[in-house]
Design goal:
By secondary structure, the chain is α/β, with parallel strands linked by helices. About 40% of the residues lie in helices and about 15% in strands. Helix 1 (about 15-25) crosses helix 6 (about 135-150). It is globular, with a radius of gyration of 14 Å.
């Protein structure tokens, strides 16, 4: 299975989700799932090189023993639809943008991360705006744990 997490800039929520799920998969001994993340926007892509994970997001991951070293923002591409089995968005705006970029969602691959939690339909609030990286981490962990039960 191939999973792509998506948020607006690929420097906070989606890379946090990428590394949380990778850790959960590693702990479970699962090597059959590829996990990556991407942005709907190109605002963090500079001359072909993506920005690194935003320092407060990186620090939040580190508080939980997770490293995202080397991760740089990339933008979602239309061709990704055929390469991934599931696109997990952080909020409704991401869902709309992902479907626009991908040219629709005929196979029903685009969902929200928290659809796999005890609060389906909820958004993972963007800590870029809220400044609350701890709550974003907790919501992402909750969604990823629920996703683990699904995959």
């Amino acid at each position: 299975m191939k999973i792509m997490f998506v948020c607006l800039g690929n420097i906070c929520r989606s890379p946090m989700a990428e590394f949380v799920l990778k850790d959960l998969l590693k702990t479970a001994g699962r090597t059959d799932v590829l996990v990556e993340s991407a942005a709907t926007s190109d605002e963090n892509i500079f001359r072909g090189t993506g920005a690194p994970v935003y320092p407060p997001a990186k620090r939040e991951l580190a508080k939980h023993g997770l490293s995202c070293d080397g991760k740089r923002a990339v933008q979602l591409q239309r061709a990704d639809y055929d390469r991934y089995d599931l696109f997990l968005c952080m909020d409704d705006s991401n869902v709309r943008s992902v479907k626009r970029i991908l040219g629709g969602d005929p196979a029903g691959k685009v969902k929200k991360l928290l659809d796999y939690s005890d609060t389906p339909g909820d958004d993972v609030a963007d800590p870029w705006y809220t400044g609350d990286f701890s709550t974003a981490y907790r919501d992402i962990l909750r969604g990823c744990k629920g996703l683990m039960n699904h995959i």
